[in-house]
Design a protein that fits this description.
By secondary structure, the chain is an all-beta fold. Helix content is 0%, strand content 44%. The structure holds FE2/S2 (inorganic) cluster (FES).
Length: 104
């Protein structure tokens, strides 16, 4: 069953290419602005316990700066090795300039 929508940021807080660490329901997540589209994904890489916040956003993907894997911000799927497991993605919407995420 889908969970509640939780406010996490103002819509204009992030410019394209920026990300913000957030903590929702005890989970560490990243709000990412990929060319104006907002995504929320797990903060930690699926390969090793390393923060994707230290990486960067390129062409709709987030890059892990430790070993260089990229993850599709839409699906969470890794697009380059060494990571072979996806990261979780979460539904995002904007209402009256407020960004909300839906937790499972
Ligand atoms: S820790 Fe992210 S690719 Fe290895």
């Amino acid at each position: 069953m889908a969970g509640d929508w939780i406010s996490i940021a103002r819509e204009d807080e992030l410019t394209p290419g920026q990300m913000k660490r957030i903590q929702v329901a005890g989970q560490r997540l990243l709000l990412c602005n990929a060319d104006g589209k907002l995504h929320v994904v797990d903060e930690m890489c699926s390969h090793e316990d390393y923060s994707l916040f230290l990486g960067c956003i390129q062409n709709g993907r987030i890059k892990c700066s430790l070993h260089g894997s990229y993850f599709d911000l839409e699906t969470g799927q890794p697009t380059t090795e060494p990571a072979d497991a996806p990261i979780c993605t979460y539904p995002v919407k904007t209402i009256d300039g407020e960004v909300l995420v839906q937790m499972p």
